[in-house]
Amino acid sequence: xxxxxxxxxxxxxxxxxxxxxxxxxxxxxxxxxxxxxxxxxxxxxxxxxxxxxxxxxxxxxxxxxxxxxxxxxxxxxxxxxxxxxxxxxxxxxxxxxxxxxxxxxxxxxxxxxxxxxxxxxxxxxxxxxxx
Length: 131
What we know:
Blueprint: H1 25-33, E1 40-43, H2 49-65, E2 70-74, H3 88-98, H4 100-103, E3 106-111, E4 121-126
Parallel strand pairs: 1-2
Antiparallel strand pairs: 2-4, 3-4
């Protein structure tokens, strides 16, 4: 049976945030070799989680607004095994990037090449601005 939608019913919810897409092998290779430019960098070393989250949000929204494609986010590697709180940004930043609040500006992200910081940094692909 057909379902009647009453007049004046609220419009359907806005579409879900687009899914994250991993970087392509070619893009990753070009970034690591330096043939594709990293257009901006953000270093979160030594920041508290709250400050790092604010910095990341502002940085990604500016990069998106400026029409950048690839940026590098440096989290630092953290001390291995010393304290459980070490390396908290290294664990948190990928979780933040996966949240809906960043999906309109982030296409995907991946651990950086060793020359760009390896496990202590992430390549982030910025979503194009729709005109």
